[in-house]
Structure formats: structure tokens, C-alpha cells
UniProtKB/TrEMBL annotation:
GO cellular component: cytoplasm
Stated name of the protein: DJ-1/PfpI domain-containing protein
Highest taxon, organism lineage: Eukaryota
Family matches, as PANTHER family: PARKINSON DISEASE PROTEIN 7 HOMOLOG, PROTEIN/NUCLEIC ACID DEGLYCASE DJ-1-RELATED
BP GO terms, sorted: glyoxal metabolic process
Natural source organism: Monoraphidium neglectum
Residues of the DJ-1/PfpI domain: 4-78
Amino acid sequence: MQAQRDGGRLSAAICATPAVFLQAKGLLDGKKATAHPAFADKLVDQSAVAQRVVVDGRLTTSRGPGTAFEFALELVKQLYSEDKAREVAGPMVLPDGFKV
């Protein structure tokens, strides 16, 4: 993960990983992030913990299993485009009003 960050590449983590791993390795220094509610209190920067998906620069974090589609589609958007994320979301039978 440090090589990802240092190389300017995308990094992503979901559930407990932002708080348990990224925070412990110093990979959240100066970054906003979120994590599973059971672990979010361990994040030093609490300003974004209630958000379902947080993008700060090249880092994307998300809260847990219930946010996995939003998390995955955000990564598709970053890697390809918003149009591609909408295309991928189409056949997923997501709830009415789900925004990509």
C-alpha cells in the first residue's frame, strides 16, 4: 500500500481496513477516510466517518458490506469513467434512486 501511495496510484480500502491497517501504517496521514462503524472511532480524522464512500485524492474508503456497490462503482468511475460506472450499474438491479 505504501508503494501504491508513493507511486501515485489508486488505493482503496473498505470495512475495518482503513482504521485497522491504513491508520496503523500511517497511510491516512492528512487524509479523510471512513470505516465500518465498529472501527470508525479509531480514525484520527473524524470529519468524514459518517459518509458511505470517501474519496480523498487517490484514496477511496468505504464503510462495509452495505456500501460495497457504491464503493465498487466509485472505483469503476475513477478507473474508467462515470459513463462506464453507469453502464456497469445498469444490470445490477440496484434500488430505485441509486446514484452512480
